[in-house]
Amino acid sequence: MKRRRNRTENGQAGEAEQSVSESKSDRLRIRAAWMYFVEQMTQNEIADVLGVGRVTIVRMLADARARNEVKISIESELSEIVRLERALERTFGLQQALVAPLSDPNADPIPAISARTGSFMSEAMKSGMRVGVGWGRTLFGTLPFISAKSLSDFRVISLLGGIGAARRFNPAEFAWRFAQIFQGEGYLIPTPAVVDSIETKVALVERCGLNEIFEMADALDAVLLSVGGVASETTFYRDGFLTEKEREALVSHGAVGDLLFHFFDRNGDLVDHPINSRVMSVDVDRLRKAPIRILTSGGREKDDAMLGAMNLVQPTILITDEESARRMLEAHGVDLNLGGR
């Protein structure tokens, strides 16, 4: 009995792995077909965008035809998603956009975004990388979807403090668990997320050995970030990092969201508020130095924050849900019926 159950479990695991693999290859094939038949890109251009050889593109296009996915139009449930991704890439100058489909336009998008992000991180993380990570419900949701593997010389740096109290979504907890998935080393900022004065911040950095951690942020290979909104029900306020009075003051200064507790307006400019100088997190200028900047967020309450963050951190990879993607594009005047401006 036990041996039969193990075979069943192993078979189910194998089927799941095969399904994930097939889903990824299906998606890549449809992207290639879209670029070739709709955007009329050359096979060499498509190979450069997708990071594969031209021979692979030829094979994928032939496969798409054989599957009857290419007729007068591309017939696939993924085609609308690909169209949104390509529109996001063009509009915001992204290297890659990944859009998670939703079963219901009114559904909570975070589980879908987290799953898509976890799948991406499983493939993107390599030995020898230095990765800075943020925090929040979206990022914590990625953990079950990241495939564990051992990476040599892999380091994870938490980009902000927040160890002061036990909370559901603690920055240090996420960084540590993320590092464990890849059997890497984790580096934390052992301070509260926000301190009482600039003087305290300077003292902690200069006298408590935190300089080394902040300097590591100058040589990151990638950063994984999410944005928070300024509504009172968001993680930042619900978990007690700021008071309602402080939240209202930030809103009055034009804040629409935060990135590592750096509060910014819809244009992506940091707001003029004292809290931005008391935050124990890596500054935005350092984040922009990382060659791979992954922003993963979504939800109607974060619409303005997402638009501001595109200017603030200038991500190279954006991961969001299909409804958020549509609203971002519409805000930039993109005609989705034409796939462009």
* Helix percentage: 40-55%
Q: At the first level of CATH, what is the class of the largest domain?
A: Alpha Beta
Shape: globular
Put simply, the count of helices is 14
How much of the sequence lies in strands comes to 5-15%
Cα gyration radius (Å):
21 Å
Instruction: Quote the average pLDDT.
Output: 86
In the CATH hierarchy, the third-tier topology of the largest domain is known as: Rossmann fold
- pLDDT < 50 stretches: 1-18
Strand order of the largest sheet: 1-10-9-5-2-3-4
The run of helices and strands is: HHHHEHEHEHEHHEEHHEEHEHEH
**Count of discrete domains:** 2
Report on the structure:
The structure is a single chain. By secondary structure, the chain is α/β, with parallel strands linked by helices. The protein has 2 domains: 2-76, Homeodomain-like (Arc Repressor Mutant, subunit A), CATH 1.10.10.60; 86-331, Rossmann fold (3-Layer(aba) Sandwich), CATH 3.40.50. The protein is built from 14 helices and 10 strands. It has helices at residues 2-38, 43-50, 54-66, 79-92, 110-124, 137-140, 171-181, 198-207, 211-216, 235-238, 244-252, 284-287, 303-312, 322-331, and strands at residues 96-100, 130-133, 155-158, 185-187, 222-225, 228-229, 257-259, 262-264, 292-296, 317-321. The strands form 2 sheets. It has a 7-stranded parallel beta sheet with strand order 1-10-9-5-2-3-4. The protein has a 3-stranded antiparallel beta sheet with strand order 6-7-8, with helices on one face. α13 links the parallel β9 (292-296) and β10 (317-321). α1 packs across α3 (54-66), α2 (43-50) packs across α3 and α4 (79-92) packs across α14 (322-331).
